[in-house]
Amino acid sequence: METPSRELGISRESGKNIPTVINQNFVTLLDTRTVPGELKWAASPAEGGWEEVSIMDEKNIPIRTYQVCNVLEPNQNNWLRTDWIPRSGAQRVYVEVKFTLRDCNSLPGVTGTCKETFNLYYHESNDDRESYIKESSFIKVDTVAADESFTQVDVGDRIMKLNTEVRDVKVTTRKGFYLAFQDVGACIALVSVRVFFKTCPLTIRNLATFPDTVTGADTSSLVEVRGSCVNQSEERDEPKMYCGADGEWLVPIGGCLCTPGYEEKGGACKACSVGFYKAKSSDAGCSKCPPHSHSLRDGATECDCNSGFFRADSDPPSMACTQPPSAPLQLISVVNETSVVLEWAPPRRLGGRSDISYSLECLICQTGSHSHSQLCLPCGSDVLFSPGQTRLKTTRVVVRELRAHTHYTFIVHARNGVSQASGAGPAQSVSVTVTTNQAAPSPVSSIQATDVTRHSLLLLWQQPDRPNGVILEYEVKFYEKDHKERSYRIIRTFSRNVDVTGLNPLTAYVFHVRARTAAGYGEFSAPFEFSTNSDPFPLIGEGVNSAFLLLSVSGVGILLLISAAVFIISRRRSKYSKTRQDSEEEKHLNPGVKIYVDPFTYEDPDQAIHEFAKEIDVSSIHIERVIGMGEFGEVCSGRLRVQGKREIYVAIKSLKAGYSDKQRRDFLSEASIMGQFDHPNIIRLEGVVTRCKPLMIITEYMENGSLDAFLRKHDGQFTVIQLVGMLRGIASGMKYLSDMSYVHRDLAARNILVNSNLVCKVSDFGLSRVLEDDPEAVYTAREATGTYLSPGGKIPIRWTAPEAIAYRKFTTASDVWSYGIVMWEVVSYGERPYWDMNNQDVIKAIEEGYRLPAPMDCPVVLHQLMLDCWERERAERPTFSQILNMLDKLIRNPGTLRRTGGDRPAPTMLESGMASEVCVSVVPEVCVQEWSVCEWLQSIGLERYTDTLAAAGYTSLDSLLALTHQ
Ligand code: ACK
């Protein structure tokens, strides 16, 4: 008989099917096709088992294969071991085996002995020349079967199929490893064996270079890699990326910015060309030089001003170069005794700037001299300028307190921001010379009284600040304060003091003094008040009744302070009561809408629980088994038989012994909340046991437990329509909650329960306990987020909207964000959002605009809906009502779910079943014309309901359209 092994080989046709995996993400550790000469792997038994055979491949290149075909003999155990393969830093290696396998049916007389699989093993080792390795030292990777075994057809024109199988193995303990192939009686040819590992290739992202990186040991592990800034760039924020297990880079965070003088072009920083500049490290490009400036070299950080143009220190590099102003125009002066009003017009040229200001120079010049050589000195500091002397923005100044009959020269300078840099001189000024008129002396000041007696005092004063000529005499006017100026006396004197006599004792007097020159009297001084005393003789060192004055002054002050305080407090009070009133008005709620009632508003928690939950007699509950642990104690399943009703399966949460008052209240709060809801997608409360211990909360039983674990258990087993059906149920429950103004705060797949019909129900309600019993929830700190946080409370970062993390703004819109995360969890079959990134990186990535990518095979429309839920602005996120409408549309038009981001077309409703009751009411509109009820039910896997529906009178799809949940 022709031995089957001779039939093994590769035909030209099969060669066409070989996938060419040329990808620079792969590093090949072994490829039997490229090994020169024979492989000479260790075979056991050495004879009659695996045998090395050289054949020609599809390109007529000789390759080495291993073949075995002892299909007629029982109890085969043929081992083939590769040479030592160094792992070269890899942590997970992939073994790609191409092989052909004879179909046992095609071999006559082999029943019972012929097999169609072989086993793949590995053994980690530091020894690259182990001569003998026990079979038991090898660890099994997998049993490999052919996808397509071949049947021998026409010998002259055979079409043989080549199988390609890939398995991955974690190799982390030794420097290398051996692979082994165990044959137990098949007819196989190993055509090629390729061993490789995956890397994330060197890449540049956000101007940071990330090196070629070996992927992690586990299929879900991410390797965190820090990037280094490309030449001529600097860190904006530490550049980081994660190398995923399949060699893809994920979640770029941070990055670099081109330094001044450089701009980003094609992932590198290129110098700004001549005529351009860039002043700062930024992601902007180079800018053209502003007017009147230039750059002569590449890489300019600033442009130089053209000759005659300047830049002030405070001018930004983006501003045009400018010039100083020309001189002010049309300076005119109007003299009024010892004052002068100066006015001028702005310069003709402002030099391209708007920061013009003026300053005034004041000179006293020699009388009568008009020549250039006249002697001028700066005016004294007693001259007053209004509104000022320098940095004037107005073009009018009043100069007062000049000397009478004096020549003054005033020079008005115009300046702007570049006057100093340009060294601008007199060209920017204009001057005028004036002579002041004769003027009376200024008022006398600093009046004092000494030597006070009951009838007299000595009055003293200083010369006026501006006598404006020779003082000829002083005039003192005084009167009793009580009589006002109705009668007064006048004394004239040449000296600066006078003895005032003939006064009444203990009487207050008012004194005024003025001076006279040739120009006449000046004005009287301000009133000076003084009292005589009862002493017959003056007291040495006597002052005014200073203590009294002090007391009265401070008394008035204290009085003023008290009244000011009373005034402020009374104002504050009225503002506070207004605020309170405002907030009370705000709290007024819209009547007529059913709103959930916070059980914590009840003083007595038992009152709340009995308002919203039914008390169940413990004897009607039969606990069967423990199904999990909650925060307060065990969760069990069991049966509940209430009189007059059929027995139902229930979940029973109990409160463990030794609880505090707070724990009791928190435990029961969940029931008080749940008891207010009545919706097919919200977990139903059956009742509570509060009259005996342990306290219990009884809910409907959800056979499939929590959604995340359920999906992980059934990875890849649902159709897209089934997944969307689950999401629709959750959205419907959430819409109901949001209509009741209930904010969940901890919406996540782990808090959704699934029943045997795949109906998803929102669970996990509560108030203070919300987030406290969730292992995902963490205490947030300022450092973690870089944002202010009110103290207290834990937050499940990955599921929570940024505004809720940053400042605890929990709203229905933040629930919508969490819903988007639940969508991602569902479509990725319970994958952990943001994989094993840490919370701080998640917060940072979200802040920088990163969003979770579409899971494998995720329809584009679903991912778009997730992205909408993750809008930074919460007002821009969809409402649950909009989400529900959108999902209904998708279910009705399954074609829209076909387009996915990946290669594999997603199965649609037409191709597969839909076993959930949630979607029973959703009839695909597109099919209404052509389909019968029976066909449609078949297409969604619910054909068992055909009779029920027919019996109920639903015979056409049109009639089904009117069917609702109820
Ligand atoms: O993922 P699971 O199986 O689903 O484990 C948790 C465990 O109890 C602790 O919460 C399960 N569980 C909670 N409520 C119910 C319920 N109503 N029906 C079925 N299982 C439930 C949950």
Describe this structure in words.
- Strands 1, 3, 4, 7, 10, 12 and 15 form a 7-stranded antiparallel sheet that branches.
- Helix 7 runs antiparallel to helix 10 and helix 7 packs antiparallel against helix 13.
- The chain has 7 domains: 174 residues, Sandwich (Jelly Rolls); 56 residues, Immunoglobulin-like (Sandwich); 103 residues, Sandwich (Immunoglobulin-like); 83 residues, Immunoglobulin-like; 105 residues, Phosphorylase Kinase, domain 1 (2-Layer Sandwich); 182 residues, Transferase(Phosphotransferase) domain 1 (Transferase(Phosphotransferase), domain 1, Orthogonal Bundle); 37 residues, Transcription Factor, Ets-1 (DNA polymerase, domain 1, Orthogonal Bundle), CATH 1.10.150.50.
- By secondary structure, it is α+β, with helices and mostly antiparallel strands.
- The N terminus is likely disordered.
- The protein binds 2',3'- cyclic AMP.
